[in-house]
Amino acid sequence: MKTISHGRILRSWIGHVRSKAATNPHWMAPMAVSLIRKEQKADDGGGLAARRAIRAGSHRGPTAGLAPGNVQGNLAILPQALAADFLRFCQLNPKPCPLIGTSAPGDPRVPELGEDLDIRTDLPRYRVWKNGELVAEPQDIREFWRDDLVSFVIGCSFSFEEALTAEGIELRHITRGCNVPMYRTSIATQAAGPFRGPMVVSMRPLKPREAIRAVQITTRFPSVHGAPVHIGKPEMIGIKDVMKPDYGDAVEVRDDELPVFWACGVTPQSVIATVKPEFCITHYPGSMLVTDRRNTEFAIL
Amino acid sequence: MKTISHGRILRSWIGHVRSKAATNPHWMAPMAVSLIRKEQKADDGGGLAARRAIRAGSHRGPTAGLAPGNVQGNLAILPQALAADFLRFCQLNPKPCPLIGTSAPGDPRVPELGEDLDIRTDLPRYRVWKNGELVAEPQDIREFWRDDLVSFVIGCSFSFEEALTAEGIELRHITRGCNVPMYRTSIATQAAGPFRGPMVVSMRPLKPREAIRAVQITTRFPSVHGAPVHIGKPEMIGIKDVMKPDYGDAVEVRDDELPVFWACGVTPQSVIATVKPEFCITHYPGSMLVTDRRNTEFAIL
Fold first, then answer.
1. Which residues of B touch A231 (CB under 8 A)?
2. What CA–CA distance (Å, rounded) separates B276 from B279?
3. Residue B258's closest chain A neighbor by CA?
4. CB pairs under 8 A between A and B
5. How high is the ipTM of this complex?
6. Over the stretch B31-42, which tens digit does the pLDDT of each residue have?
7. pTM, entire model
8. What is the reported pLDDT for A8?
9. CATH: 3.40.1640.10, 3.30.930.10, 3.30.1490.120, 3.40.50.450. Which one for B6-159+271-298?
10. A113 Ramachandran zone, left/alpha/beta (phi>0; psi -120 to 50)
11. Contact: A233, B258; criterion CB under 8 Å
């Protein structure tokens, strides 16, 4: 894995997220923020070490840069009454909602994703929602825990972005130190129970040769959104102005580039916001679940 | 393999090639003409049966439709003095010049491509060139054979087009019953000895989703040109007007489509025409070598 020092970019991005969140608490930052890992440090250790540091309160803030090369995941926790529908929603829409881990009802563990993993304490920050309203942003959800809660961990584009940058493909939002631009599209998801709504996509401008290579590389990672869903013609998927994203930040698409669109992990968050479940917990933007799984494990070839 | 009856399209195309060739003997039809196979007939048999029918003179004309599912190849035969450079040229430029078979000097067999294969008799028609001039278009090259001749068989897009149409991707030149449009580009090939010149590409207009799928499908076939070399911006590879191809026929690119460009088997023919070797034999356009290998064998996954 190629690691590059991006401390400055990282700090700039953290400030950006914080200021957006501070000025507008309903600002929807992406579940899967797109940052490359900062330089690996000796004390980063593996996923377990990262989770223990978070649990102990010795790491706060975004998880970008923790346990480089390890998969990080988006989190959605729903009452069991909605779990079957949400699970079916994910299975019907594997590109925006690639499930990489689920828990048993009431069980805070997700053993397939990590040793000694406690979903209630191992993310730096959470968002607690009641009837679609944000009611808390705690660093620990033990006090909100219920015996009927089911956790869903959804793959994020961190994993494929690592593979793209490792091949020397520049990702503009990373270079710019901003967030990837995301858009609600005219592509409908497959509904399951109350869960329905448009697919959200992220966009990365790439030169045509890089776009072809990026299709190949991301095809190898079906469990972290996989191949692009669209390329080149934003208007065909209901995007009127590529410079006006619905989430994240606009980045320039140059004349020698094509906008390339991937299904985005913001889709389930957007869908949950529409459903307004009586109770729901998600991760705080940028504060992902750090797993023990390696990005490379998720490459199917 | 999906087989569709395209007898009418095939007949129309054959007429087209013949009339072009008749009115302009220097019209360069593609080495790898792009047609889907016509319906498999009981007497098509395998590659060996096809070659024996050709050798016996009972099959004349284009090989499209013979031995459906079998690989067909472009042919270039050069004196041994040029063979090492041409071989190196192919190895340096595997996308336009994917070598699938070579012979020993003077040996008319290419055992890796077929049983009882005689390169001198097993193609329906040849073109014989002296110092860059076309001197004959015989149905048999035994009288031109020399002990220093080396045969090169180069993969053709038939194989990946079969895979694309099997997935329901419409290829407009096939629907229209015309030849795929081809263009000399500003992409330089890697030179080897006297062999050098621009890469020739073929173009297929595809909807964005199909273009992404086509990248995936053709990536599986590196020995028959593999993934596209460009997508979406013809001017970036030196193509001023996509409606004015240098070889083949123009096909419309609609507003909801992207032009997708693959390296083309016409490249080596174009390069040989520039080099003007003292002696050279190629296949007659559309009269390919039918091999015993299956298209599916060439899929790397």
1. 208, 211-212, 231-232, 258
2. 8
3. A232
4. 54
5. 0.78
6. 433 333 333 333
7. 0.80
8. 37
9. 3.40.1640.10
10. alpha
11. yes
